[in-house]
Amino acid sequence: MKKILLLVVAVVFATSAFAQEHKNSIGLRLGYGAELQYERHFSSENYLEANLGLHGFGRSFFANASYNWNLCDWNWTPNAGRWFLSAGVGAALGTWDRGDDGIGFQAGVLGDVAFGIRFNAPVTLSIDYRPTIYFLHNAWASGLYTFGLTCTYNF
After folding, report:
1. 98-110 in b/e burial notation, b at 16+ Cβ within 10 A?
2. Is the C-alpha dihedral spanning 12, 69, 130, 104 positive or negative?
3. Radius of gyration, CA atoms only, the chain
4. What's this model's pTM, rounded to 2 decimal places?
5. Rounded to an integer, what distance in angstroms lies between the CA atom of residue 11 and that of residue 48?
6. Measured between alpha carbons, how far is 19 from 4 in angstroms, rounded to an integer?
7. What pLDDT sits at residue 17?
8. Residues near 111 by Cβ (< 8 Å), separated by ≥ 6?
9. Residue 32 contacts by C-beta under 8 Å, 6 or more apart in sequence?
10. 117-133, pLDDT tens digit by residue?
11. Residue 72 near residue 84, CB atoms below 8 Å
């Protein structure tokens, strides 16, 4: 057991030297539902984010994508990692449960603001606000309250 723990610690420290060079991230976002999240970093300044998830843990599915820019970067905790603030815009598609009327389709635009930390290990933790305005079936109001907690693994 001690050898396995030592191996895990060695791998984390070995990968931490390359934490800023990762181009891809995959993780989980929890809020009013659960989402799988993928990020493709083009540089330290911008990245593309795509999500696939369940809205409200119910029968409503959605997919969205946003193009984000890193607005600020702070080195408040150099031993732990670098803090960031990012924002972006994108589009959303999905279905929503209309109760007895069945399933409806929705499409809209979204904004994304995230604040978090990129740890020296290949892990990022952030909180974000992603308001989404849907254009179909008067469902726009349900997308304005989408706060979430995201944890991603960078590779």
Report:
1. eeeeeebebebbb
2. negative
3. 18
4. 0.80
5. 27
6. 22
7. 47
8. 66, 87, 88, 89, 90, 130, 131
9. 55, 56, 145, 146, 147, 148
10. 999 999 999 999 999 88
11. yes
Residue labelled with tokens 């892990």: 123
Furthest C-alpha separation in the chain: 58
Question: What string of DSSP letters covers the chain?
Answer: -HHHHHHHHHHHHHHHTTGGG--EEEEEEEESEEEEEEEEESSSSEEEEEEEEEETTTTEEEEEEEEEEEEEEEEEETTTEEEEEEEEEEEEEEEEE-GGG-EEEEEEEEEEEEEEEEESSSEEEEEEE--EEE-STT-GGGGS--EEEEEEEE-
Tokens 């420290």 — which residue? 13
Structure tokens at 105: 């389709």
CB 155 within 8 A of CB 122: yes
> pLDDT, tens digit, for every residue of 44-80?
899 999 999 987 777 788 999 999 999 999 999 989 9
CA atoms within 13 A on the CB side of 10: 6
